[in-house]
Write a structure and sequence with these properties.
single chain; 11 strands; 11-stranded antiparallel β-sheet; 0% helix; mainly beta
């Protein structure tokens, strides 16, 4: 049994800018055959963090806590960058570039990385025509070890690029494109516990 719910607020004013995609994310995963119960509670998510702009600054963030495969876990994202928001009589738009620190800790497994995100959007006459573009590149490392006290056996290098395009005209033409490209490489640990002892 998998139950997932998200309660979102589309946009809130924030001084000279706004904060968008603020969502309370709740989830429950029950597996009777393996007798496991996992849950998740968070503000935003790694794939859809909340985003704020207060010209000339911008940022992203998310925090999720819960359990995964019976182990306690936390996922987080915190970013800061430059952004600009313009609101005219007939059109409004925003653009930003944000560099964020991302991470995931599940039991003794730790993944840390950096993410660069560029976003741009424009809206004409309250939705008569709108377009948005999101480009994200992420690079992370995940040291692998059976026991955090013992030596690190190897390091996983993980990378991903995500592209999202949305175009809408007169509520009739609606074009959505989402693409994801990922790669991973396993590297031997450069220094082991036994090397320094």
């Amino acid at each position: 049994l998998v139950v997932r719910a998200s309660f979102a607020i589309p946009s809130l004013p924030l001084g000279f800018g706004s904060i968008s995609n603020v969502a309370l994310d709740l989830g429950l995963d029950v597996q009777i055959d393996s007798r496991s119960l996992d849950f998740i509670v968070g503000i935003g998510s790694p794939m859809k963090p909340f985003h704020w702009i207060a010209s000339p600054l911008s940022g992203t963030g998310s925090l999720q806590v819960g359990t995964q495969s019976g182990k306690p876990g936390v996922k987080f994202q915190a970013g800061l960058g430059a952004g600009l928001e313009i609101n005219l009589a007939i059109a409004k738009g925003a653009a930003s570039v944000v560099l964020a620190l991302v991470g995931e800790i599940v039991g003794s497994k730790v993944t840390l990385g950096v993410m660069l995100t560029g976003q741009a959007e424009v809206d004409v006459l309250e939705g008569l025509a709108s377009a948005s573009l999101t480009l994200t590149a992420m690079l992370a490392i995940c040291p692998e070890t059976e026991d955090p006290i013992e030596e690190i056996e190897y390091i996983d290098l993980i990378g991903a690029v995500v592209v999202g395009i949305h175009i809408s005209v007169c509520w009739v033409v609606d074009i959505d494109f989402d693409g994801t490209w990922e790669f991973s490489q396993r590297l031997d640990a450069p220094v082991t516990y036994s090397d320094v002892m």
